[in-house]
Amino acid sequence: MVGKFISFEGPDGAGKTSVLQALLPQLQAHAQQAVVLTREPGGARISEKIRELILDPQNTEMDARTEALLYAASRRQHLVEKILPALAKGAIVVCDRFVDSSVAYQGAGRQIGEDAVLAMNQFATAGVQPALTIYLDVPAAVGLARIQAHRQATQYDRLDRERLDFHERVRAAYLRLAQQQPQRIVTIDATQALSAVVAECLGVIQQTLGAQWQA
């Protein structure tokens, strides 16, 4: 891979969307390569179709393992269709969620096993992982309160509607991953003001890009 692969992770309500929207213009201004912003589940046509299935609040009968397999399938298609070609062209790919999300949400949140979900996704990705993962950390109760304050009832997806204990398991899994892989995962306190979070993220990315960053 010639380019650089960066992922953003965080529990629901961590503010990833707002942070990425604020970061993108600065990345485009300073990075020497093209910057590609994408998301999971989704990011490619087939992957977006799978996203609709996964997040549809009407799909209440969806089995936890079915959900995990759908995420992995969406990820595989996204990887081969969008991420890998962009990296091969030398782009900086910034992805809103990747494998860590499945480990946290399906492995821990759904309680089907973090190791099992990781193995499934290693098969789906052939072991591809980001060079840098920025984890935006926020307590589960704070994240859910943010969601409730900023979304209409019709905007809630299946995961937003889970109980607090589900989201607490998700956060705990993220913190474990960050502790286990400090060389890849950088934790940032997302309870800070947006400007402070964006500034920290920018500093971490600048460090990672090194000579590929231009002042």
From TrEMBL:
Its EC number is 2.7.4.9. It catalyses: dTMP + ATP = dTDP + ADP. This is Thymidylate kinase. It comes from the Bacteria. Belongs to the thymidylate kinase family. GO terms for molecular function: dTMP kinase activity. It is an enzyme of class 2 (transferase). Phosphorylation of dTMP to form dTDP in both de novo and salvage pathways of dTTP synthesis. PROSITE patterns: THYMIDYLATE_KINASE (PS01331). Residues 8-200 form the Thymidylate kinase-like domain. The keyword Nucleus does not apply. The gene is tmk. It holds the Pfam family Thymidylate_kin. InterPro entries: P-loop_NTPase, Thymidylate_kin-like_dom, Thymidylate_kin_CS, Thymidylate_kinase. SUPFAM superfamilies: P-loop containing nucleoside triphosphate hydrolases. Keywords: ATP-binding, Kinase, Nucleotide biosynthesis, Nucleotide-binding, Transferase. ATP binds at residues 10-17.
